[in-house]
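Lab channel / #folding
Pinned by the channel admin:
"Please post every new chain as: sequence first, then the structure tokens as a reply. Keep commentary short and put observations after the output so the thread stays searchable."

First post following the new format, from NK:
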Amino acid sequence: MTSVKARAVRKPRLLMTSQDMETIESLMGRASCSGAAGRLLEEELSQAVLVNESFSGRPFCRIGSWVTYEDLGSRQVRNIKLVLPVDADIDKRQVSVLSLVGASLLGLVADTEFAWSDDNGRPHRLKVLHVGAEPHAPLE
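Reply from TO:
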């Protein structure tokens, strides 16, 4: 069994709409979320700052967002859309919010990072570069 452990880079304040919170809680109740992604989501839901759908602050990673992020381990930049598990499709760059990558990005704004390591000690560290309603840049 894999667990999530905090590393030196702590996750900044997480933003979440009430609608996204309810949707994710419902998904977690129906899906098998006993792995690392499930534990990460539980932790995030308990720390999230709820905002209205009309929140006018900086865009944040939420269901339906296009997110450009850098994997700081491999230095690869990716542009993905955070979606519900039923809509996940790697060929279309649609990543489930119940996956480790999706869960780690959820609630972040641009220029923030999150790092974790699994039970095997493998580190993972992502940095959000851009969040929007449309893809930011084509993949090369």
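NK: Confidence is low (pLDDT under 50) at residues 1-9.
TO: also worth noting, The helical segments are 18-30, 36-47, 100-105.
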